[in-house]
Amino acid sequence: MSKPPFLVLPSTARAYRLRTARGEFAVHDAGEPRLGTALLVPGFTGSKEDFIALLDPLADAGYRVLAVDGRGQYESDGPRNESAYAQNELAQDLLAVTEALRGDSGSSPGTKVHLLGHSLGGLISRAAVMRDAGPFASLTLMSSGPAAVSAGQQHRLKLLLGALPVMEMEEIWQAMLELDPVEAADEHTPPEVADFLHRRWMAHVPEQLSATAQQLIAEPDRVAELADAVADVGSGGSPLPLHVLSGSVDYAWPVPLLDEMARRLGAARTVVEGTGHSPNAEDPRETARALTSFWDAATS
């Protein structure tokens, strides 16, 4: 879970519900596509607000940026049915959001989209690219690894899976605060952000949490499959540009594992020093610089 440093949308951004062939999704939309367009996908228990501090610097650099709540996340509706949150379903949602983004009046016809997925969002993003890489200009996997999360995180997710059928969401939230106040909300968190974290948790569809927690526990290593899928879909039949970005420490996937994944993919590699699992929120300026540098090179 990312903890946004603030919640007020910058003047370059607006919030609305994007209509797609697979329903409406809550989004934050910032900037003009002078140099390109990017789609940002949040992780487990996250939301579009996880990227709020990236919006201004990415827009200032010349990019239109859309951050989205996935199906069943925060302000995007979702059914009370776990099958609706299968990874393939969520990947198809991303492709529908991408198609809507490419087709609206803010983007040039046929424009390709730079896709970024954070944590769980990275697993869903790579599934979307493996299904159809054609709409994308590049793929960035942020703090998202090759397979299932670490053993420690699997243990925590199994505790959550045990709690969801027998406890109310408010009860689980209170248990999370007692178990790990730093991750949920602590004394250094501004009151409005702490209130938001609680509100966001309560708005998530429980079945979305259950289905995606199981994905994080059971995800197979699909690195070779991704490499094959992007081998000749870039400009002029070249590979789709790939980027692995993380903090210098990570509790979900150890950083050396992310280094190795980047080598296996032939991907660009960025480590945002002094940050953890959420460089997007912990050092947004440096993260934005890394992203725009990669995107500029990917489309040059």
Task: Give the structure's gist in a few sentences.
The chain has twelve helices and eight strands.
Entry keywords:
single chain, 300 residues, alpha/beta, Rossmann fold, 8-stranded mixed sheet, 12 helices, globular
Description:
With 300 residues, this protein is an alpha/beta fold. The chain has a single domain (13-148, 220-298), classed as Rossmann fold (3-Layer(aba) Sandwich). Helices cover 43% and strands 17% of the residues. It has helices at 52-60, 87-103, 120-131, 151-163, 169-179, 181-184, 191-203, 206-218, 223-229, 255-265, 279-282, 284-298, and strands at residues 13-20, 23-30, 36-41, 63-68, 113-118, 136-142, 242-247, 268-272. An eight-stranded mixed beta sheet has the order 1-2-4-3-5-6-7-8, with helices on both faces. Helix 10 links the parallel strand 7 (242-247) and strand 8 (268-272). Helix 1 (52-60) packs across helix 12 and helix 4 (151-163) runs antiparallel to helix 8 (206-218). The mean pLDDT is 94.
Helix fraction?
Answer: 40-55%
Q: Number of folding domains?
A: 1
Count the DSSP helices. Answer: 12
Question: Which CATH architecture is right?
Answer: 3-Layer(aba) Sandwich
Strand fraction: 15-25%
Largest sheet entry: 8 strands, mixed
Spans of 5+ residues with little confidence (pLDDT < 50)? none
Distance between the termini: 33 Å
Based on CA inertia axes, which overall geometry fits?
globular
CATH class: Alpha Beta
Mean residue pLDDT: 94
Structural class: alpha/beta
CATH superfamily annotation = Alpha/Beta hydrolase fold, catalytic domain
List how many beta strands DSSP finds: 8
Gyration radius over CA: 18 Å
Order of helices and strands: EEEHEHEHEHHHHHHEHEHH
Strand order of the largest sheet: 1-2-4-3-5-6-7-8
CATH topology: Rossmann fold
